[in-house]
Amino acid sequence: MTLLLDRVTFRYRRWERPVLSGFSYEVPDEGLTILLGPNGAGKSTTMSLLAGTVEPRAGRVLFKGSALTSADREYRRHVAWLPQKVPTSRQLTAREYVAYVAWLKGEDRSTAWDRAGSVLDQVGLADRSGQKTARLSGGQLRRVGIACALAHDARVILLDEPTAGLDPHQRTVFRDVLRKVAARIPVLMSTHDIADLADEATTVSLMDRGRILHHGGTRSFLEHARPDAAPGRQAESAYSVLMGLEATD
Ligand SMILES: Nc1ncnc2c1ncn2[C@@H]1O[C@H](COP(=O)(O)OP(=O)(O)OP(=O)(O)O)[C@@H](O)[C@H]1O
Hints:
Layout: E1 3-10, E2 20-27, E3 32-36, H1 43-51, E4 58-63, E5 66-67, H2 73-78, E6 79-82, H3 94-104, H4 109-122, H5 138-151, E7 156-160, H6 168-182, E8 187-190, H7 195-200, E9 203-208, E10 211-217, H8 218-222, H9 234-242
The structure holds adenosine-5'-triphosphate (ATP).
GO molecular function: ATP binding
Keywords: ATP-binding, Nucleotide-binding, Transport
Protein name: ATP-binding cassette domain-containing protein
């Protein structure tokens, strides 16, 4: 019950149909939740609303029982939002950048600097902490983004397609970091990479056209797979069945 959307309606332009209408969604308080759905389903919109980067036309965004207001410092501090492209400053080193973000979120300078060192170590980037962010790879930058969330004591982490475009090695490293982080802090992550969920996710949410089609434990999601789905393909099959793309028998 930490972070949720309560009967939210949202449209990008006044004359357009709402992307979400009377939409409610609660981010689970534990583990890794994966938000699946086809292009245009409303995943990024849902995450932007939860992150407070856009405001609903109707309904509420609630954090720890209080409605979000854009000036809410506690919210900014405790809800970490990582868009697909981590917005780093190219001139700063990884450590300077993480420390800067922690300072912006309210840590004092020396605490921010110390924590930046320790969290970069936690995401496996201790040896890159003195490197300019402009010279880091996409996968390393996403780990810098996670480090920022850890540095300012986030209570919830929202990740928009964090594994998109990563090579298999970077993806594995990123998932290892994610597994450790999600054991301590709830993480909501949108993805098209169904393989991400099989081993890692605690909860699976599937949305389409602004509606949630499934929200529950990974096992209950996988139970929707066709009985004859090939080993390792149950998640894809469950997705297709729930989306109505594939019959169950
Ligand atoms: N900035 C925008 N301006 C206008 N319409 C938008 C904007 N962003 C998204 N939309 C529309 O809102 C709907 C939901 O988009 P959204 O990006 O939330 O979906 P998504 O599930 O994240 O898709 P994808 O998997 O492609 O990232 C789509 O119809 C999309 O065209």
